[in-house]
Write a structure and sequence with these properties.
Largest sheet: 8 strands, mixed
Shape: elongated
Number of strands: 15
Strand content: 15-25%
């Protein structure tokens, strides 16, 4: 998947590390923000798998490290639940300024509680999905239970979470105790999807039930039966991602695209920005584009690549058609091609740009029990395929402007 490494600033001006995952071969129709679990980071395997499932459905995902975690600047000890919500709002503003405001928020564990709160500050958000989220942020205090007394008395303590040491200050405890998710759920006014495992030992399933009852419709629940809290099994995180991607399509709609009417064999449409081009061949839709190196988005093959592909397809079809008629054992044809411009071998004016001609380099693989005479004949036939002959023959292109 196309992935861009980016940075944006939090409310304190510190740089937060992020990755923007983009769909392959298409322009994103929506953007999503992902909030990872408490003390985790954006590179957790479950986060990547869920993001890629959304990418396959045309949704770009910004996943980032909260302040003081992963590759982000700042001190984790100075953060709390409220600062996580602020980080989400800053991430949303970055998307809005540089790409498109987020329409979907996804949060895992404590990140799930954070996206519910952040949604109230982000009018662009239409849907929120939580995974293994607690009904109350204070639920996370059970991870600190052995050090809570020390934090209360000394104001700070080092705790071990997931085998890693973290410094937690008293203001963190005070902040999560002040948070009340119930009114946030009641007034969410966005579509809500709650995913939770009945076997979650970190955040018990009762949290999902309380969240569901507090929220208003539209709301949905999906059981991640058999999964652990971190979705350690890749099949669990892939399933969660696919379910979110399917569910969100009901609430975050793709923009309607005006149908491209085909009056001849092929119709092509390009708007006033970029080079991403809609192509209709009878009832078959294609996308053409230019590489990023020449200002395109690389969402599809270039015009020359489409011509080259046409030559390759015609070559393969012609060879199989001939072999089948002869009842020869040709199991598979593979054609590899390149297109480039170079000077003619006998050109006397090699320095003149106009002396360059088009070359198609074609390598053919024939799989099957063919003798040498059959292989030689098929090579001869390849040079007689219809597109090959068209490219070599004189061509006339008749162009006219259609009346308004």
């Amino acid at each position: 998947m196309p992935s861009q490494k980016i940075e944006f600033q939090n409310a304190e001006g510190e740089k937060l590390a992020a990755r923007l995952e983009l769909p392959v071969g298409q322009r994103p129709y929506a953007y999503a923000l992902f909030a990872h679990c408490f003390t985790c980071n954006k590179n957790l395997a479950a986060v990547r798998n869920i993001s890629r499932a959304l990418n396959r459905k045309g949704i770009a995902v910004l996943r980032f490290d909260f302040t003081g975690l992963g590759g982000s600047e700042g001190d984790f000890a100075d953060t709390n639940f409220s600062s996580n919500v602020e980080d989400l709002v800053c991430a949303a503003r970055y998307l809005e300024e540089h790409y498109q405001a987020p329409r979907l928020l996804v949060g895992h564990s404590l990140g799930g509680a954070a996206v519910i709160c952040a949604a109230h500050e982000l009018p662009s958000v239409q849907a929120v999905a939580t995974i293994g989220a607690p009904y109350s942020p204070r639920h996370v205090s059970h991870l600190l239970k052995e050090e809570i007394d020390e934090i209360e008395e000394e104001g700070v303590a080092e705790v071990s979470i997931g085998g890693r040491p973290f410094t937690v200050k008293k203001h963190f405890l005070e902040d999560i105790r002040e948070q009340n998710l119930e009114p946030k759920l009641q007034k969410l006014e966005r579509a809500l999807l709650i995913l939770h495992s009945p076997q979650d030992l970190t955040v018990e399933i009762e949290n999902a039930a309380r969240m569901y009852h507090a929220a208003r419709h539209p709301k949905s629940y999906i059981s991640l039966d058999g999964a652990d809290h971190l979705l350690s099994d890749k099949e669990d995180s892939r399933y969660a991602g696919e379910m979110i991607a399917s569910w969100v399509s009901r609430y975050v709609r793709r923009p309607e695209k005006k149908a491209l009417k085909v009056e001849k064999d092929v119709a092509v449409r390009l708007g006033e920005e970029g080079f991403t081009t809609d192509v209709m061949v009878r009832r078959h839709g294609l996308t053409a584009d230019e590489p990023e190196s020449v200002g395109g988005n690389d969402y599809g093959p270039s015009p020359y690549e489409l011509v080259t592909a046409g030559l390759g397809a015609c070559t393969a079809m012609t060879l199989q058609m001939y072999a089948r008629r002869k009842k020869w054992p040709l199991k598979e044809v593979r054609v590899h091609l390149d297109h480039f411009k170079d000077h003619a071998e006998d050109c006397e004016k090699a320095e003149d740009p106009k002396s360059k001609i088009d070359y198609f380099s074609r390598t053919i693989e024939l799989e099957g029990e063919l003798d040498e005479e059959q292989r030689r004949k098929l090579l001869e036939i390849a040079n007689k395929c219809p597109v090959h002959r068209t490219l070599l023959n004189p061509i006339k292109i008749l162009t006219e402007l259609k009346e308004e």
